[in-house]
Amino acid sequence: MVAFQPIVELGLAATSAGVFVLDSSLLDGADVLAGGDGFVWTDVTDDVVGPVRCQRGSQQGSVPTLRYDGGSISFELDNQDGRYDPANTSGPFYPQLKPGVAVRLRVESDNWIYGPWTVFTGVVSSWQPRYPAGDLISTVEIAGEDNVALFARADLPALDTAVGAGESATDRLDRIADRIGWPAAKRHYETSSGSIATMQATTMAQPAWTEMLLTADSDCGFVWFDQVGTLRYTGPAQIPAGVFIEFDMDSPSSMAYYDEFEPRFDLEEVFNAASIARVGGHTVSAVDETGVAESGLRTYTRTDLTCETDDQCDRVAQWVVFWRGRARYRIGSITCRGTRDLLFLLNLDMGKRLKVVQHTPDGRDVTVEGLSRGLEWTIHPAVGEWELRIAMQSVRPAILDAFILDSSLLDSAKILVP
User: Fold this and answer.
1) In Å, how far are 53, 101, 303 from 13, measured between CA atoms?
2) What CA–CA distance (Å, rounded) separates 38 from 384?
3) Which of 253, 261, 285 is nearest to 271 (CA)?
């Protein structure tokens, strides 16, 4: 077991260094974007009471693509001397105790050459004083959220004229991020293997995060924020073929093993028919006949995509049934506690290909691969214990065979190949 030390930090010491300001012409007044390094980190780990909980990603596969639902963090601080009470005007951190203060969780160890490793970065959304024993005990509950919430609240007026016709998904993401002042240094895109769609012109009438999700869905990609708050995009052809971590329950000498797992064989992630339309376009369809015969018709329908052409919508429909057309034995989640592979787990993020080896009582080894889609940490700083639950999404095998979509439902045969 690797000894580790969690570090809980808040941006409580204000400074003007590094602050960037969202354009006042868009917001009717200057607005500092929280987390823009307009502060100095303050270590509050010694005052943490009980566990620190944080989660990122998604726990359910209710859409064909990976979908990042946003992250959250929560913990409680000892407030016996009133230092964390936002109403204490004589406290050492007044008036910094307010929503919007930066928060992060890191982990370090004397055994690591590099580090500390960041687990979560975001901003505080709530300071909640508690007095569980009248005036004898005082704590403050702190809740935080990652940058998804910030983007979701960035709902600026629509442009008078639509712009950006024909731009790539990543160019559209840049356009959205530029408009709300998100720094270019905190963006990273992976699209080296190509994309599916170019975008229609847009007036950007919806909140920034809604526009980003629509862009990603139109390209069958995945937009998200990593542990340190960087905006990331993974293109549709970037699903990894190589395994990032292999987990095994009965091999404690290995670098990664799990304590619990949740095997599933259900229809939650099955979409064997896709009915896709872009704004102003015609509906196109794709069907996996074998998947329909096995599971009944399970349709994914979209009529709001911003693909530039109907042909691109057709590629979206084919992508959906290719990856999600049939039920697969999968691992819904695995849980790890205090194992020696903590350093490997700290490198784990969204969309990584994982292999899980399941041993059965009758002597079989069942190997299942999937993509990481959600991370849920519970860390107890006072006792040095931790738990990580990894939600997984099913994935086709790395080596694929072409299959033919039956022409009886499509009015023409379509061959899908990897």
Assistant:
1) 24, 10, 48
2) 31
3) 285
Residue partners of 241: CB distance under 8 A and separation at least 6? 353, 398
The model's pTM: 0.88
How far apart (Å, rounded) are the C-alpha atoms in residues 121 and 101?
A: 11
Assess contact for 123 and 103: CB atoms under 8 A.
yes
Nearest alpha-carbon partner for 298 in 271, 267, 265: 271
Rounded mean pLDDT of 290-306? Answer: 96
| Residue 305 β-bridge partners | 278
Supply the DSSP string of 110-151, one letter for each residue: TT-SS-PEEEEEEEEEEEEEE-TTTTS--EEEEEEE-HHHHH
Cross-strand partners of 376: 55, 389
In the chain, count H helices and then E strands. 8, 23
Q: 76 near 50, Cβ under 8 Å?
A: yes
List the one residue out of 141, 393, 196 whose CA is nearest residue 314. Answer: 196
Instruction: Give me the pLDDT at residue 383, please.
Output: 84
For the CA atoms of 330, 336, 342, 343, the dihedral, rounded to the nearest 10 degrees, stands at 10
123, two tokens: 């901003």
Residue linked to tokens 């609240």? 153
Comparing 33-37, 79-83, 202-206, 339-343, the range with the smallest average pLDDT is 33-37
- Per-residue pLDDT reduced to its tens digit, 202-229: 999 999 999 999 999 999 999 999 999 9
Amino acid at 418: P
Closest CA to 233 of 293, 165, 168: 168
pLDDT 10s digits, 121-136: 999 999 999 988 777 8
Say which DSSP state 220 is in.
Answer: T
239-249 mean pLDDT: 88
Residues 182, 212 contacting (CB under 8 angstroms): no
Sign, CA dihedral 324-329-332-333, equals negative
Q: 286 — alpha (psi -120 to 50), left (phi > 0) or beta? A: beta
Query: How many whole angstroms separate alpha carbon 380 and alpha carbon 96?
Result: 26
Q: Are 169 and 221 in contact (CB under 8 A)?
A: yes
Produce one character per residue of 190-227: b if its CB has 16 or more CB atoms within 10 Å, e if not: bbeeebbbbbbebebebbbbbbbbbbbbbbbbbbbbbb
User: DSSP letters of 268-279?
Assistant: TT---EEEEEET
